[in-house]
Amino acid sequence: MDVSKPQLLLKRVVNIKAIVTPLWKEEVQQQLQAQINQIDQQLQQLDIQGQRAIAEVQKQNLQPPGPQTLQQIESIQYQVNQKKSELLEQKNQSLQNLQQVQLLELDQEVNQFQMEGFFRVEPGDNLISKMQVEVVLRDGVVEEIRGDV
């Protein structure tokens, strides 16, 4: 008769770290620059869309514009400014991240992202140590797995 220990399959968060290399820095800087360029394009499109919407409202209404037309125009400008503010905040964050990446030293470890993974636990296991697992990558290749797998 097989008397095996009871086991349980649990889910944990695994930290994925990267070792800073010239290739890693270059790739991350390119990704951040692409994000910044995309935000710049969105800002330009937003300006154009806002101008078109205001022109359309003005075209459909009488001259001089009445209070309802002015209110519509103000509403459009407010919405455009709100979205512009969000995009500028995103751009500022990306610029800060770009600056931080440029200052990183080679062979330094940085947190890159987190993933979820499953693991088995059985009586006698240290749950805390089983929860603390991280994977270290060098240029996308697993260099080390740390913790109680």
TrEMBL record:
PROSITE patterns: TFIIE_BETA_C. This is TFIIE beta domain-containing protein. GO terms for biological process: transcription initiation at RNA polymerase II promoter. InterPro entries: TFIIE_bsu_DNA-bd, YlqD. Gene3D superfamilies: 6.10.140.1110. Keywords: Coiled coil. Residues 35-128 form the TFIIE beta domain. Residues 73-101 form a coiled coil.
